[in-house]
Amino acid sequence: xxxxxxxxxxxxxxxxxxxxxxxxxxxPSYLSPxxxxxxxxxxxxxxxxxxxxxxxxxxxQFFALKQMKISDVIRLKQETHVHNEKEVLSEVTHPFLISLxxxxxxxxxxxxxxxxxxxxxxxxxxxxxxxxxxxAGLFYTSEIVCAIEYLHAKDIVYRDLKPENIxxxxxxxxxxxxxxxxxKLSDRTWTLCGTPEYLAPEVIQSKxxxxxxxxxxxxxxxxxMLAGYPPFFDDNPFGIYQKILAGKLExxxxxxxxxxxxxxxxxxxxRARRLGNMKNxxxxxxxxxxxxxxxxxxxxxxxxxxxxxPKVSHDGDTSNFDVYPEDEWKKEPPVxxxxxxxxxxx
Length: 346
Fold this sequence. Notes:
- This protein has ten helices and nine strands.
- The protein is α+β, with helices and mostly antiparallel strands.
- The protein folds into two domains: 4-118 and 315-335, 2-Layer Sandwich (Phosphorylase Kinase, domain 1); 122-291, Transferase(Phosphotransferase), domain 1, CATH 1.10.510.10.
- The strands form three sheets. Strands 1-2-3-5-4 form a five-stranded antiparallel β-sheet. It has a two-stranded antiparallel sheet with strand order 6-9.
- The radius of gyration is 21 Å and the shape is globular.
- It starts with 6 loop residues before the first strand and ends in a 6-residue tail after the last helix.
- GO terms for molecular function: ATP binding; cAMP-dependent protein kinase activity.
- Pfam families: Pkinase.
- Residues 292-346 form the AGC-kinase C-terminal domain.
């Protein structure tokens, strides 16, 4: 595992009055955020997390350092999600998943050192283009299917598939990020979590849920990528939930016949009949006619040609992300020892 002293500031440098507080005999100048600090995306539950760009002093490789306020993690009841994220990321290695290299905590913050993926969020490209072509949607869906198949083989359910959680690397291939809702499954789980437009019916109805929720979410994502909007939307979450449970789908005319069939098979209310969740699992998905041109052996080898190649001028380029101004985190007080005990494993 890399030590903190192995990381140097990434230019442009900030002054040394940083918000890091490490109980180690090193200078905080070994880790410095970009100026202004780089957030990868606004955290889903307030302001307990932010991400900085850092650089390894010897290899010169860039990494993303995720920093979370312990006080806010506890206040927002996110302890379980934070531990789940660490547990899941500690046991996965896949070309389409973000990698975790190291974790740490001090009296104020939790830290996770992750890959830096410079291409930005798929969400940004989808919004700027309005919608994707059938071939672009096919590319992204194929890579996501491989990622979901890998997670499910490890008894992990992702539970937060959406365009904001899909990053593009410098070549244009996907990386799933933000594993706060991911969970190792022993059986079913009952926690209500996820984004309203992407929630499966069994989650809304608190029936207990498992791997099937990821295939439902993929159906929502495929629809949104190709239509430019999700199939179930409303001004408030309750209205969205009502539409999801009603299950009425209205497709735009331009959608390909086979992709409409695929979406219908993902968005089946009865999870026992949902594509991906039957006896053959992901193999049923891969055999669907929409994927007839896909070489599934080539997909995890990253041999398919990406439809979008992000503009990345160098490994530490942050131009594909929104940046947020520095805040008052450096004034964050230490938390009580009893609260620190909740994060002994970090």
